[in-house]
Structures are given as C-alpha cells and as structure tokens.
Design brief:
Layout: H1 2-10, H2 21-90, E1 92-95, E2 98-101, H3 108-116, H4 118-126, E3 132-133, E4 139-143, E5 146-150, H5 153-162, H6 169-176
Length: about 180
C-alpha cells in the first residue's frame, strides 16, 4: 500500500542520523520561504481581482458623482430659467435676497427700428437672401457685386423691388403701417 511506503520512507535507517536543532531551524526557514513564495503565487490572481474590483468601485463612484452633479446642474438650470423667465415678465425680481434685473442688449429705438423692418426681413428669408444688421440697425445686402441698404419700411420696400421680390397688397400695407 501507498501508506506503507510512506511510513517506510519516514523510518530511520541505521545510516541516517537524527536531525540536529540547527538542521531543524534551517529546514523551517526553507519551508517558510517556500510557503511564502507559494502563497504569493496563489494570491496573485486574487490580488489582481481585488484591484479590478477596486477600480470598478472607483469608476462606479465617479459615474454616480457625475450623475448626481448632472442632475443637480439640470435642476439648477431649470430653476435659473424659471427665475429669468419671471424676471423678464415682471421686469425685476427678488430671489434669495438678490435683485434680478433683466436688461435689454439693444436700445428701444434699435428694437423699434428692427420691428418695423420685420416684414422686409421675412421676405428676404423667404427668398433665401442673406443680410446683416449694421450697428445703427440698417439692413445690408451684397448681391451680384452690388450693395443694398434699407433703414426704414420705405427704403425696405425699395430694396425688395430692386432685388425683384414682389409684395402682396397686404404685405405692402403691413410694411407701411406704423
């Protein structure tokens, strides 16, 4: 039997001498070194798995933080839009003890001038003609090497005629109404 063979191997033969205390210490150190190498080798895949789990947890945590920041930003953006909408409607507003005042980027004269030229702009857009606003709210068009300009409804009608854009009677009335 195999157990008998092992027992026979362990038995001392007359030529073998018993181990000394120093021999046992040396064997112990060799055994400990071999066991630590073996444990380190066996634990290496486990350590790698632990590192992967740590990385995944950090990534999950980062994603969760970003998601909460995005949700908070979205909520703040909605609140900001609501506050600005109320301020535009009322002219001014107190929010968190801060006065919110919405000011126009353009003067009222400029806005009135642009509003009066709105029918001209809509006809230019229908005809897909590009234009630009000057600082004094005139319409400028460059077409076929020529420059056209309109600063009021009368010159706007002349501009459309020069470009070959026809107006209906209603559009002409809308253009000339104050």
């Amino acid at each position: 039997m195999a157990t008998e063979g092992v027992e026979q191997d362990l038995e001392l033969t007359p030529t073998q001498e018993p181990l000394t205390k120093q021999d046992l210490c040396d064997l112990r150190e060799d055994l400990l070194a071999a066991m630590s190498t073996m444990v380190a080798t066996l634990l290496q895949p486990v350590q790698q798995s632990i590192n992967e789990v740590r990385h995944d947890l950090k990534e999950t945590s980062r994603i969760a933080e970003n998601a909460s920041e995005m949700a908070l930003t979205l909520q703040e953006e909605r609140s900001r839009e609501a506050v600005l909408k109320m301020a535009r409607m009322k002219g001014s507003l107190l929010y968190n003890d801060q006065k919110i005042l919405v000011l126009l980027d353009l003067s009222s004269e400029t806005l009135d001038k642009r509003r009066k030229l709105k029918p001209v702009i809509s006809k230019l857009n229908e005809a897909r003609i590009r234009f630009r606003w000057s600082p004094v709210s005139d319409i400028h068009i460059y077409k076929n090497g020529l420059q056209y300009q309109a600063s009021d409804p009368v010159t706007g009608r002349a501009l459309l005629a020069a470009l070959g854009i026809k107006l209906t009677r209603k559009e002409e009335e809308d253009l000339l109404l104050p």
